[in-house]
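User: Good morning. I'm curious how adenosine-5'-triphosphate would be positioned relative to this chain. Could you predict the structure with it bound?
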Amino acid sequence: MIVFEHVSKSFDSLKVLNDVSFRLASGDILGVVGPSGVGKTTLLRLITGIIAPDEGSVQVAQGAVGYVFQEPRLLPWRTALDNVAVALRAQGMEKDGARVKAAEWLGRVGLAGFEHYHPAELSGGMAQRVAVARALAIEPAVLLMDEPFVNVDIDLKSSLMVMLQGLLAGGKTTAVYVTHDLTEALRLADRVIELQADRTVRELDLSDRAAVARDWFARASAQE
Ligand SMILES: Nc1ncnc2c1ncn2[C@@H]1O[C@H](COP(=O)(O)OP(=O)(O)OP(=O)(O)O)[C@@H](O)[C@H]1O
Ligand SMILES: [Mg+2]
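Assistant: Good morning! Here's the predicted structure, ligand included:
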């Protein structure tokens, strides 16, 4: 569960978010789209509590929060297995249990056999899969993803998104997926909000996803 009620946030004189409201139930997946600088990462940081709103309120379900960044942000001196296990240990899990569970999650993201590789020995897409495993292994109540596949090529992105869909399907994790790319959001999310350069927010009507995508590309090409 994540609830934003009339949330506003400024940095100095710049109002980044202006009167943002939405309500996500357990298991909902929200896509957040919009151009660079519009406040997408700020919205995620409000959910984590790293920053507080100036006005309005942010409520988030109790429980662990998983975060997948644009780049994997793994500990370079630890193996793939240990990178996942460290997150479990931080949650209070004992060492052997954490290693077993970390290995299970590496298997789920297609990295069985790579447990003992260090980040420098993994491809970018493999490292990003470790980051996804690390975020999901803690069984987060809330999963936040900030353009998680922006650095991977299109085929791999596609397979990572299918994997993520499978991992989230039917679960209780409330997820927020930030992207520049509406088509990614349409693939993964139940709902999509668009943060706009004029600081207004609109929720897209997804009853006709193909029409939403057409409208998006028409607007994008009009701007070129
Ligand atoms: N801690 C901060 N202090 C000052 N300004 C900030 C801070 N964090 C964000 N901003 C400003 O808020 C605005 C929104 O930033 P944010 O990172 O949320 O954008 P974004 O939509 O995630 O952009 P991108 O798609 O490029 O990642 C930017 O103008 C940024 O400079
Ligand atoms: Mg950002």
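Helices lie at 40-48, 80-90, 95-108, 124-137, 154-168, 182-188, 209-223. The chain has two domains: 1-63+144-224, 77-140.
Let me know if you'd like a different ligand tried.
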